[in-house]
Specification:
The protein has about 220 residues and is an alpha+beta fold. The protein has one domain. The chain is built from five helices and eleven strands. The protein has helices at about 5-15, 55-65, 75-85, 180-185, 190-195, and strands at about 25-35, 45-50, 95-100, 100-105, 115, 120-125, 135-145, 150-155, 160-165, 170-175, 210-215. A hairpin with a 5-residue loop joins strand 1 and strand 2 (about 45-50). Mean pLDDT is about 85; it is low at about 1-5 and about 15-20.
Length: about 220
Amino acid sequence: MKRPAAHATLAAFLAGTAVPAAAHPHVFAEANLEIAVDAGGNVEALRHVWRFDDLFSSTVLIEFDTNADLQLDTAELEAVGKVIHESLAEFGYFQFVTVDGRDIAMQPPERIIADFQDNQLIILFESKPAQSLHLAGTAGFGVYDPTFYTAIDFYEDGNMTVSGLPAGCARAVVRPDPDEAIAMNQQSLTEAFFEDPSSNDMSKIFATRLELTCKG
C-alpha cells in the first residue's frame, strides 16, 4: 500500500511548495545533460541525469520504502518517477531552451526513470523540442528551478555535452556571475521577485547553460 503522504513530501520538496517564499535552495543535485543532434543539424533530444544529495535521497528512501526493507524495489522506484513526473510538469521539468533569447517549447518527457545508487536518488529523462529545432544563431540549454528551492547544477563543464555537433558550431559553458546578472537585469528584478521568486522565471538568468553558436 502506497502512502499518499510520501507522494506529497516528494512533490513538495522538488517543486518548492513546502516553503513557498524560499529564496535559497534546500535540495541539491548534480546534473548531466546531453544534447543529441542529428545529421541535419536538428536537435533531437535533451537527455538529463540528476543525482540528488544524500539528505534528500534518504528522505525519499524513507518515504517510498513501503515494505520497510531499506531499499527501493522496482515498483517503489516507479512510484518515485511517477510523482516527480507529475510534480515537475508545471515547471517544464526545470529545463530551458532558448534561441537568440527566444524561449523554445519542449515536449514533456514520456516518463521519468528513478534509480537509487550509493545512497543517492538518480533520475533520468529525455525531452524533445515541440517543433523542429535547427541549430542556427545562439541556442542555450540549461536547468533551473524558478522557485529557488532545488539547486540542480553542473559541477563540471564536462557534465554538459553534445553528440553530433555540426561543423561550424561553437560550444561554450556559461556560468553567470550573480552580481553581473543582477546589474544587467535590475529593471526586471523587482522587490516582488525577492519576496516571492515562484511568481516568475527570472532565476533562469543565474543558471549555468550550454550555448551553441552556429552559422545558418
